[in-house]
What does this fold into?
Amino acid sequence: MSIVLVAQHRFDHPADAVFALSVDVERFPQTFTGYGPIPAIRRIVLQGPLAVGATREIHSSDGSVLSEHITALRPPLHHAYTLSGFRAPLGWLVRSGQADWQLQPLQNATLVTWSYRFETTGAIVRAPTALLLHRCMQPAMQRCLQRMNALLSGALPG
It folds into this structure.
């Protein structure tokens, strides 16, 4: 059973700058600050060159290390990955998450649509997991996009 989340934001920046930040292992962590029980990203370690098939280690503020496997990479318009390695208690609820970033160039701007499809561990946990993800992960995603925009605008120290 899957749960889908979508966050969108209009950036007053070109798609190449937004895309570059979205895959930047040094700068992106400061934009994902978490929300409620969703931990912040402290560090990202890229295992090899950024390419389809590469893996990134996501070090979180709760001490967990998640794995991102890059499944699509088409700069500056699209990238996708599968997130896995959740530890308890979230690991009891979620098997994996498939993230998809779509960047649509607009006149003097870029529209980003970031979606996640989370696979739950079973039907019995779907309702509480959906509630948790919609109330915590979705706001974390939206805040991340807003912080990315602030970083690109110089309003967030970088």
Remarks:
- The chain has one domain: 2-153.
- The helical segments are 15-22, 126-153.
- The chain has two helices and seven strands.
